[in-house]
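Run log // design_07
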């Protein structure tokens, strides 16, 4: 190739690169990664979309982090301001060494509530999954005026939604002796975490291995004790269900419960129960397990956009 052709090729590449960078920087779906100090906790979060757009707060659950929303965020961010924090004890969020932090759902919710205040979120829709549900329920009960809509993807709020898989946890809640606590340690093994991703999935080849590998690596880095503490404290969420149900009856937020039908921990009855207290709750099922977003992400995103569009039009 002549020197002239090389110069033309270099110029074309530079122009293409500049155009790509400009387009990417203007794309509201481009995800940015930040950390915000709150109550002695450095909260890592993903953010995309225009800040002036309606906000959607995504709350992950056990054996996950905001990484689980890697595909959902761009799907929502064309029209919404999307924020997904890692909860304390998970992902990239770090409790500072000089912070005395007890891993309870009250404390986790307090950090996330303070995080929303620090971010200036006056109103937001909630997406809750697994542990994200009891965190989100506390936010909704404490700040009903802020909640514009709720999407629960296998995020339980009724005792009938708990499967027999909670038997060991129930035993530990009733009698939290050391032996019963130690019996919960198996839920943190890489094998058990991988099982939670694949159980109930018709085609396990759809589950990217790094999903459960990253979750296991975070537990190994942060430690198992925070996870054991949260499992032991999960019974506090059941005791708070009456407050949640009263919130649903009084405020009737637009709501979608979209559920992996074959979830080994949260059974379909838990999804159907939302309609008992909230006449604005819609229930859908997908042919998947606990981590339904991994296999039915496009379907869930479409259903979310439909709900969020309706709720925005009604405001």
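design_07 sequence
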């Amino acid at each position: 190739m002549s020197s002239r052709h090389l110069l033309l090729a270099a110029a074309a590449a530079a122009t293409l690169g500049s155009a790509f960078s400009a387009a990417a920087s203007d794309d509201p779906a481009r995800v940015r990664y930040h950390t915000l100090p709150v109550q002695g906790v450095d909260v890592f979060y993903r953010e995309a979309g225009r800040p002036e757009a309606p906000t959607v707060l995504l709350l992950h659950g056990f054996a996950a982090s905001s990484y689980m929303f890697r595909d959902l965020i761009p799907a929502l961010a064309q029209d919404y301001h999307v924020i997904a924090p890692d909860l304390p004890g998970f992902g990239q969020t770090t409790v500072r060494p000089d912070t005395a932090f007890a891993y309870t759902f009250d404390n986790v919710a307090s950090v996330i509530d303070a995080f929303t205040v620090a971010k200036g979120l006056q109103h937001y829709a909630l997406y809750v999954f697994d542990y994200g549900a009891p965190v989100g329920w506390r936010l909704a009960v404490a700040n009903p005026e802020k909640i514009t809509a709720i999407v629960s993807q296998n995020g339980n709020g009724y005792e009938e939604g708990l499967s027999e898989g909670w038997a060991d946890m129930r035993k530990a809640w009733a009698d939290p002796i050391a032996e019963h606590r130690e019996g919960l340690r198996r839920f943190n093994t890489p094998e058990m975490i991988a099982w939670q991703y694949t159980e109930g999935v018709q085609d396990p080849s759809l589950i990217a291995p790094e999903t459960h590998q990253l979750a296991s690596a975070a537990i190994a880095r942060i430690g198992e004790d925070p996870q054991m503490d949260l499992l032991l404290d999960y019974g506090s969420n059941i005791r708070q269900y009456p407050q949640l149900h009263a919130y649903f009856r009084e405020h009737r937020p637009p709501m979608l419960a979209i559920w992996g039908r074959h979830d080994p921990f949260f059974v379909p009855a838990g999804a159907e129960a939302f309609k008992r207290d909230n006449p604005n709750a819609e229930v859908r099922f997908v042919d998947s397990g606990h981590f339904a977003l991994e296999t039915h992400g496009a379907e869930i995103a479409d259903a979310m956009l439909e709900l969020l569009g309706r709720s925005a039009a009604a405001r």
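The mean pLDDT is 92.
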